[in-house]
């Protein structure tokens, strides 16, 4: 059985860290893996704050090299040293803002595995690609291009670009179709997360879809009030 995971992606936002104390109080012994991915500057403080709690931390990106002349970048080893267990890679915002290719995402995933971090590999089609019937081809190409060439455990997140931060979500059938493809093409027992406008109000319906093992949550992970119902819905689905 793949692990069930509720992961928060804070993006370039710095919520009050008191929010995580409230989240930890509400889920002292979560029946699922709980993970928060803050901006790199907050990672060490958040990891330290959560050291006695059952909430893990992750980075939002890493460089392919372990150190060197790469101004502004952070290596996987540095994330690990700051307390991270995971790292989000290939998020569509990085693909769009920084021109990240599948090949680069694969190299980053290999660097993350080398540093003993679990990559959360993000894939997803644009609205234009969905509307022109290319979704499954796009996902298949992204997966083939960015999946590391080892069978080390990793996590895959399906995040349709048009659903991120928009309040729009795909139909259960659309999610199911992509997750069936991902299940077929990824290593056995890889947790498959859905991401894109997940909220307390739609989480239970999303977690009931075949081959959905959790969520990667942006906006709704910034407060305990918004994130806790999503965690509870995942716990209830186990
Ligand atoms: P959202 O973001 O939940 O705010 O739509 C999801 C993500 O980008 O990971």
Commentary on this structure:
The protein is an alpha/beta fold and 238 residues long. 41% of the residues lie in helices and 15% in strands. The protein contains ten helices and eight strands. The chain has helices at 18-26, 40-49, 76-81, 92-97, 102-114, 127-131, 135-146, 172-185, 200-207, 224-237; strands at 5-9, 33-37, 56-59, 86-89, 118-123, 155-158, 192-195, 214-217. An eight-stranded parallel β-barrel has the order 1-2-3-4-5-6-7-8, surrounded by six helices. Helix 2 links the parallel strand 2 and strand 3 (56-59). Helix 1 (18-26) runs parallel beside helix 10. The protein is globular. It starts with a strand and ends with a helix. It binds 2-phosphoglycolic acid. The site of 2-phosphoglycolic acid (PGA) has 13 residues, from strand 8.
Please give the count of helices. 10
Q: Give the beta-strand count.
A: 8
Widest sheet: strand order?
A: 1-2-3-4-5-6-7-8
Distance between the amino and carboxyl termini: 10 Å
β-strand percent reads 15-25%
**Rg from C-alpha positions?**
16 Å
Shape: globular
Bound molecules: 2-phosphoglycolic acid
Derived structural class: alpha/beta
| Pattern of helices and strands | EHEHEHEHHEHHEHEHEH
Could you report the average pLDDT, rounded to the nearest whole number?
97
Largest sheet: 8 strands, parallel, barrel
Question: Could you list the spans in which at least 5 consecutive residues all have pLDDT below 50?
Answer: none
Helix content: 40-55%
């Amino acid at each position: 059985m793949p692990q069930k995971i509720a992961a928060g992606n804070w993006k370039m936002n710095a919520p009050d860290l008191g929010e995580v104390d409230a989240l930890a109080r509400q889920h002292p012994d979560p029946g699922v893996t709980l993970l928060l991915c803050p901006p790199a500057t907050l990672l060490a403080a958040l990891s330290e704050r959560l050291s006695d709690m059952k909430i893990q931390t992750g980075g939002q990106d890493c460089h392919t090299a372990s150190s060197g002349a790469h101004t502004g970048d952070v290596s996987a080893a540095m994330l690990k040293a700051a307390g991270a267990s995971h790292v989000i890679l290939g998020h569509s915002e990085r693909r769009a803002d920084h021109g990240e290719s599948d090949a680069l995402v694969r190299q980053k995933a290999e660097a993350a595995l080398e540093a003993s971090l679990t990559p959360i590999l993000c894939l997803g089609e644009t609205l234009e690609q969905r509307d022109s019937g290319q979704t499954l081809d796009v996902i298949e190409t992204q997966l083939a291009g960015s999946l590391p060439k080892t069978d080390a455990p990793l996590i895959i997140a399906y995040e349709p670009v048009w659903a991120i931060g928009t309040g729009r979500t795909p139909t259960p059938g659309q999610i199911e179709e992509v997750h069936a493809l991902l299940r077929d093409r990824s290593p056995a027992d890889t947790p498959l997360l859905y991401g894109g406008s997940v909220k307390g109000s739609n989480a239970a319906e999303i977690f009931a879809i075949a081959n959905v093992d959790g969520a990667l949550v942006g906006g709704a992970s910034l407060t305990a009030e918004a994130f806790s119902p999503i965690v509870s819905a995942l716990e209830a689905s186990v």
